[in-house]
Amino acid sequence: MVGRRQLLAGGTGLIATALAGCTGGGGDDESDSSAEDVEPYTVEIAPHGEFTFEEVPQTYSVIPSVYLDIGMALGKQPVAATDMARAPRKMYDILPDVTFNEDEIDALATGSESGYDKENFYAANPDVNLIDPRGLGRFTDWDDSDIQEIEDATGPFLASGIRFGPTHPFGNEQDTYYELYDVFEKIATVFQRQERYQEWASLHEEFMSNIESELPPEDERPSVVALWRGVDPTSGQFFPSPLHQYHNQTKPLYRLGLEDGYDAEIPSGGSVGYEELLEHDPDYICVVGSLTSDTHEDFVDQIVEPFENDANGQELTAVQEGNVIRSGGQYMGPIVDLFATEAIAKQVWPDRFGEWPGPVRDVPEDEQLFDRQEVSDIINGNF
User: Fold this and answer.
1) Coiled coil: which residue ranges (predicted)?
2) Cβ atoms within 10 Å of 339's Cβ, excluding its own
3) Cβ atoms of 71 and 77 closer than 8 Å
């Protein structure tokens, strides 16, 4: 198979060539066609280095993550992905004039963590792979030569995992970490959709400024323990997730100034029991990921009520006060981030931001903290 990427002569960058096809909409003057004349441009994403493009990539593959949401925020649906069972469809469905068609997405694997086949990459033929190969390595027995083979046949791997920060058990203090909007800007440059990014950045700045102006003083903000990896109160085993600047899956909690209620070192293996939760006894317990992957009814039936019905769970202040809440998680890109931050603000401070209705789509229009139509217009390039 002829390689689509080659080393720049005498340099360290990489050229992505023979890029074709188009997914996603566009109504502005940004580059959306590889037929347009584009000067070569370079994007650097640690730890993978610099990639230089001669033409604008049009298609991408993804393991469902922040990069799926970044792609959608830029008006681009992936051509290939893994398991979409927990993808944040509900957020996309809420936004007017935004389409997410899973039938048009080829499968890279039989599941998000298993069943990968290089032939699936070749068949999908993405121009770029918005996948951190370090993460892919956890789900396969592939080595660097296998990744190189896929890159040569399709396009470069252009992602840096931002879900976990250096304080997380899965993190590494030696790694380079990006905040969401830093890596968002880099991917916008990959697709030459910088104008969309600038519109997103402006909307996000105004959104956060409006919320921050209504927050109570920092010393009056409650504590929260964030739990992830599937919360089952009947098991008595829980996985705390730190609040940290470079820990994207708890970004809304950190950014709204909630105090990290689990201030001890997380044990090896990452799990704690009811004894440790009761020792810390936070004001709130937040279930990371449930906002995107669960319905409101499932959240209540499978998490809230089991906490209330457990003899140990009943002793937790958060359970007694009805303060078990939910947020986004692994898909926390620009779109999910808006919905999740709105949800946290309403669940913690309903007197300041309006009551949280439970289902994401049921927030009354006059109580929404961001304009859904404005978000759709940016996604579709109508600005």
Assistant:
1) none
2) 27
3) yes
Count the residues in the chain.
Answer: 383
Strand, helix or coil for residue 16: strand
Closest Cα to residue 41, out of 158, 153, 192? 192
Q: Evaluate whether 131 touches 67 at the Cβ level (below 8 Å).
A: yes
Token digits of residue 291:
């906002």
Which residues of the chain fall below pLDDT 50? 1-29, 31, 33-35
pLDDT for res 172: 67
Number of other CB atoms surrounding residue 12 within 10 Å: 9
Residue 358 and residue 77 in contact, taking contact as beta carbons nearer than 8 Å? no
Express each pLDDT in 306-339 by its tens digit. Answer: 999 999 999 999 999 999 999 998 899 999 999 9
The predicted model scores a pTM of 0.90
Q: Which CATH code, of 3.40.50.880, 3.30.70.860, 3.40.50.1980, 2.60.120.920, is assigned to 209-379? A: 3.40.50.1980
Half-sphere exposure of 37 (CA within 13 A, CB side): 0
3-class secondary structure, 349: coil
Burial (Cβ within 10 Å: 0-12, 13-18, ≥19) of residue 32? buried
- Burial letters 268-278, b for 16+ CB under 10 A, else e: eebbbebebbe
Q: Which two tokens stand for residue 187?
A: 């991917």
- Per-residue pLDDT, 8: 29
Q: Taking a C-beta distance cutoff of 8 angstroms, is the pair 226, 241 a contact? A: yes
From 361, 360, 329, select the one nearest 343 (Cα to Cα): 360
Q: Specify the pLDDT at position 114.
A: 87
Please say whether the beta carbons of 165 and 245 come within 8 A: yes
List the helix and strand counts (H, then E) for the chain: 16, 13
For the chain, where do the domains classified as CATH 3.40.50.1980 start and end?
5-200, 209-379
Written out in words, the top-level CATH class of the domain with range 5-200 is alpha beta
β-pair type (49-53, 80-81): unpaired
CB-CB contact of 380 with 98 (8 Å): yes
Give every CB contact of residue 34 below 8 A, 6+ residues apart in sequence. Answer: 19, 20, 55, 56, 57, 58
